């Protein structure tokens, strides 16, 4: 292990013993799931490198930026506008966690019937294994679900740097007005913590950067519509996960380079799976890094995942922000409209999400839909019934957590489902 990294982690207050266990488990898991895949695109080597340096070089970059006066802002949800963080010369990093780390400690402060996504980010903090959390100057929560908003109260007791942004649960005019006001309040908070004024010019720059990133991810998604598929669902998921951590300009460049390679694969008829492989669309809860379980089980069972109607997936990059605004006020309004067009299960009613799933399934030539719920995630568990009833598609519901205890059971169900496609 690089001695500079060890000193860096110590200075951040990382528990080195716990952290070493996490890194070893992640490396073994990554080798087993990712590096064992055959016929991967060459462009994935960059994303392999990012994972190998996720707690090393990227953290070093963040700390160097902090020395230059930049602020690191951590977020847990796609309703927090990354563009606004960039507009105060800040750096945005995602903090959702996808592994069962520190759950024994987390359950001392959280109910046991809390979803694993919440337990994970609290557990990571309590066991001091996340250098991203420790590098942040501000942690931005949101009121998407009851579990998260109460967990943020606990996280603030632990860190004293949590800011919670209210997200309305109805897309009424009153809800839109509330969210717009929240974004103006968020603007003031970002200006206060950064010492930077959010101007028309910096907002245009921030919107441009994030739009280009989303265009690259849209391009990647469109390439998954081909048969044979030029990239595995696992690799596409990894790219989507890294979108929340990597430098956005560098990330966009690397995704476009990957897409250039995939376009050549499409022209040559080269795929990661044989032509005619059953095609699955996943919809539901987010897949926080390193939650790769379901994709791995599906693709190891003889199918290919062609899309994710998820916060780590289409809900992150679904539309762009118009760039023709002429004032700060206009830009904030454009951001509010774009972000409220994200169809999370926290909203009621949420019929637009069903249309999104239908459109994705058609565009990506999916043959079956797997509905993924994290145990105790009430909003997505409730919506599963409505989604299944509204879709004329082969449908499988998977209710699981971050553990590996149910892998055998899920694989059996997935294999039986794939045989029907």
From TrEMBL:
Pfam families: HGD-D
Protein name: 2-hydroxyacyl-CoA dehydratase
InterPro entries associated with the record: FldB/FldC_alpha/beta, YjiM-like
Superkingdom in the source lineage: Bacteria
Coiled-coil residue spans: none
Family: Belongs to the FldB/FldC dehydratase alpha/beta subunit family.
